[in-house]
Specification:
Maf protein; about 35% helix; alpha/beta; 5 strands; globular
Length: about 150
C-alpha cells in the first residue's frame, strides 16, 4: 500500500506505521503539499491542476494512480483538501476534502490495470478535526474497496 497525502501531511502514513507489522504491507507515503510536488513526485498533470485545482476528484485520482506508478504498491489512497482555518472559497469551503483510491487489477493489460475511485466530503471542526476525519475516511473506504 502507498499513500499520497496533501492536507493530512502524512497523518495516514503515521497511523499506519504506528501499527506493529505494517512494514509487511506498507510500501511508502508521499506528502505532496504543493502543486509542484504533486507534479514532480506523483506525475499529476499540470493541466489537471489548472482546470480543476489541487482540491478536486480529478487531482486525487491522478495522485492515487501516481502513487502506484511511482512505487511497488498495489493499492493506494490520496487526500487533498482545505483543512483551514483559511483557504476556503464559496465553491470549496474549509472542510472540503477530496479522496482518491487506486488498485492494481492483476492480469489486466498494463494500460487498464489501475482501477480508481474518488469522492468529495465536507467535514466540520478545526484544522486538526478536519485532518483526523479525513484520515479516518480514507482508511475506512480503502478497507471497503480492498
Amino acid at each position: 500500500m502507498a499513500t499520497a497525502e496533501s492536507c493530512t501531511g502524512g497523518l495516514v502514513a503515521s497511523w499506519i506505521t504506528a501499527r506493529p507489522g505494517s512494514s509487511h504491507w506498507f510500501e511508502c507515503g508521499f506528502v505532496t503539499y504543493s502543486n509542484a510536488s504533486k507534479q514532480q513526485l506523483l506525475k499529476v498533470r499540470p493541466q489537471t491542476l489548472a482546470d480543476y485545482g489541487a482540491v478536486s476528484e480529478q487531482t486525487v485520482r491522478e495522485m492515487a494512480e501516481g502513487a502506484l506508478q511511482q512505487s511497488a504498491a498495489v493499492a493506494s489512497l490520496a487526500i487533498s483538501g482545505i483543512a483551514g482555518p483559511g483557504g476556503g472559497t464559496a465553491d470549496k469551503p474549509v472542510g472540503t476534502v477530496c479522496f482518491g483510491w487506486a488498485l492494481c487489477v492483476p492480469g489486466e493489460p498494463a494500460e487498464s490495470r489501475i482501477e480508481t475511485w474518488a469522492e468529495t466530503r465536507h467535514f466540520s471542526g478545526d484544522r486538526q478535526a478536519v485532518r483526523q476525519q479525513a484520515a479516518r475516511r480514507a482508511l475506512a473506504q480503502l478497507a471497503e474497496i480492498v
